[in-house]
Amino acid sequence: MTGKALAAAAAAAVALLAAGSAQPRPHAPHKALPLLGIMRIKAPHDSLVRINPQNFRLLPGPRVDVSYASWSWAFSPDRKLLAVGRYDGRQSAYSDAKGFIRLVNPYRPSRVADIPLGPGPLQDGAMAWLAPDRIVAVAWNCCTEDADLVVVDALSRRLVERQPLRAYVIRTVWSGDRLVVLAGKQGGVGAAKLLVIDSNGTVREAVLERIAAGVERIGEEPPDIRVNAVRPGLAVDRAGNRALVFPATGPAAEVDLTSLAVTYHVLARARLSPADRYKNYSEASREAALLPNGVVAVAGGTRQPYVDADGKQQARHDPSGLELVDLSSWTSRMVDPNADSFAVTASGLLATGSRYDSGKESRPSYYGLRVYTFAGERRFTLFKSKYCWVRGTHGNRAAVDVEQETRIIDLVGGRAIGKRNAERMPLLVTEPS
Q1: Does the pLDDT value for residue 46 go beyond 80?
Q2: What pLDDT is attached to residue 11?
Q3: CATH number for the segment(s) 6-429
Q4: Which of 135, 193, 199, 352 is the residue whose CA sits 20 to 30 A from 249?
Q5: Domain residue spans in the chain?
Q6: Quick count: other Cβ atoms within 10 Å of Cβ 5?
């Protein structure tokens, strides 16, 4: 999160930030999927619960224990089952935890089967049900930064393959019958790689020589240790034919997912983002998503430590702003210069952001919640000057954390319609928008 100290930046450097894009989906059965959520019912156990889609309150009925959830899930192509990533809570998720996929009946929530995966929990958002009998996912160990591809037979309910990816996984996007992975150099910062994985576990790779990605530690002993993290944004077009990679600086990459041919595009920007003025990053991150109108939304931020005039260590965070990229001309239009994060809804974009310089101010400057159309027109603003984080969206509703509570937003009426205890608000289990 923005405005935190450098130590928080180091911890965040190993976290996976999944950014998806709108993808085609198979036809759903006649029965509509219920809205589900994952919440901590009794620490440290997580449970799958049913949610009222209008007010996001818990509904009565059965709950499924998914302790400890790894925040990764996928629906079967026929929508009859839900796969949820979980790990063995008897070990730490950060050392030798054992990972599992729990199959659940989403209509009358109940456990169907557990499939053991071996060491390490699944990465957040890194699971896809690519064929009726195949689930692919990425398991990891944060301490060693090892990442393995796991392939599960969903019919026989067993692990059929596990292989090392030998890369630092940054983002994943499910695109039809493929899982697209953006990865960086393992144990450092180097040329980014795009991994294209099919339902058989076959991995094809394209190296993006002009785009840097990865995480490296600089220095050996405190207080000299510093983390340098570079995470570009990833989006995949609706047909699953091409991937788009957006770094903090330099050209964007367009990758043909069939031939793996790479084309670079220098974006024509109306102005430089704050990140473009820095020569050395401590953290440079972008997220990207393809919108229904064919443009790509890109946002992120840059965090940089520095030593002030008194010799004290300080940290500065600048948002890069929310930009809309026209792929026909590869031009970019700045929509919100104060945004460092966004969420895609059925009707538009939700932007949040902050700015901070510990050498000049005691707390970050927050910019509330701004809601835009896909064309970049601002519809309304809520919670000005307050910290906001979009917890989840469903239909014309959004759950937004505002300071210490969760507010339920009516995206049509442009108003808050309810409050929740943030600690009791589930994480919504939805498919990529």
Answers
A1: yes
A2: 34
A3: 2.130.10.10
A4: 352
A5: 6-429
A6: 12
